[in-house]
Design goal:
6-stranded parallel beta sheet; single chain; globular; alpha/beta; 12 strands; 350 residues; Rossmann fold; 3 domains; 6-stranded mixed beta sheet; 13 helices
Length: 350
């Protein structure tokens, strides 16, 4: 009889359709999985003679790979820290047995002294032996000098949700902002087929952000050629004045919908709660606090790219490069865009 070819874990994931994490947990009796899932994985392991590479695992355990993750937090948007932390935990569950260790620190992005805190934390991690980093920083231009110092010291750096081009960076894992704008425009077409007046909303502090300008260009490129959609001049919400600005806008009788470009959905929902007529609302960045509004139909649709998945992916890319020399497929990497609706929003609860 012809002997069966032994396969790798990567090949087993392709054959079964299950992730490395699911297969690992089933093999080790962890997690809450259905009997069918367990049966299919164990059957595939037998059929293809899969056995964990204990030599590689023991080698990984003797050579711990320490990665520092420094990420911003903002009091106004607590879901940013929550979802980033979930992504870090997922990466650990997948690669901890292969030698991954993570040093995680959040810094106050809204503090005037955030650069000093960031630099202190980097220095502290370097003293602890950390040499490689995943960095989530909004204003990367202000730390270019410090980043160059890391590169000169042989550190590998992956940027998370920062559109920054530096020659020595390993890669950048972030949202595909332009395509997210195109997708939002497609949703507008499907849910407002007759057209109407649309108000784009951004926050004042993001006026110069290339991220959100790319998203805006995607929306404009698809909708502006269609005369039935009238895109009003963008509204930039100012800190402490957003409620007043939205109230003045809602006084217009010809407003048909909003497209929130960045973290203004909760403010819009507050002001439209008792509004007499139906106003469409399209948004980005789904988080669990929005579920009631999604299920009740107050939000038409959200284009979501999971920060949790991006955080996990950034760590995976860096870890696999350090351990196996696997080069990232691209300099800029994005996880898939999702469309969140009232009927499927509970699948994206985070």
């Amino acid at each position: 009889m012809e002997s069966k070819k032994r396969i790798t874990l990567k090949e087993l994931t392709q054959i079964t359709g299950f992730s490395r994490t699911t297969i690992y947990n089933v093999m080790n009796g962890k997690g809450n999985f259905s009997e069918d899932t367990r049966r299919r994985i164990h059957q595939a392991m037998r059929d293809y003679d899969y056995r964990p590479n204990l030599n590689a695992r023991n080698l990984a355990k003797s050579r711990l790979m320490e990665i520092g993750v420094l990420a911003q937090r903002q009091k106004q948007f607590p879901f940013l820290q929550r979802t980033t932390t979930q992504g870090v935990h997922r990466a650990l569950s997948e690669f901890e047995d292969d030698g991954l260790q993570i040093h995680l620190h959040f810094f106050e992005a809204d503090s005037s002294e955030w650069e000093e805190e960031w630099l202190q934390q980097v220095d502290e991690m370097l003293k602890q032996g950390v040499r490689h980093f995943v960095l989530m920083v909004r204003d990367t231009a202000r730390i270019r000098e410090q980043l160059e110092r890391l590169f000169q010291n042989g550190c590998e750096v992956v940027f998370l949700n920062s559109v920054l081009e530096m020659e020595k960076m390993l890669c950048n894992v972030s949202c595909d902002y332009y395509r997210s704008g195109l997708l939002a425009a497609e949703l507008v077409e499907k849910m407002m087929p007759a057209g109407g007046n649309l108000q784009v909303v951004l926050r004042d502090r993001f006026q110069e952000s290339d991220h959100y300008m790319q998203r805006l260009y995607g929306l404009y490129d698809r909708l502006k050629p269609q005369p039935k959609y009238q895109l009003l001049d963008p509204l930039y919400l100012m800190e402490g004045k957003e409620d007043q600005q939205l109230q003045e806008l809602l006084a217009r009788e010809d407003l048909d919908g909003f497209v929130d470009m960045v973290h203004a959905t909760s403010a819009i929902l507050r002001q439209t709660e008792h509004f007499s007529s139906r106003v469409h609302l399209f948004s980005f960045d789904y988080y669990s606090e929005l579920m009631p509004a999604m299920e009740s139909g107050r939000i038409d649709a959200i284009v979501q790219q999971s920060l949790m998945e991006n955080a996990r992916l950034a760590i995976q890319v860096l870890f696999e490069y350090l351990c196996y020399g696997k080069q990232p497929a691209h300099r800029h990497i994005s996880s898939p865009l999702n469309v969140v609706l009232g009927g499927n929003c509970h699948y994206y609860d985070c």
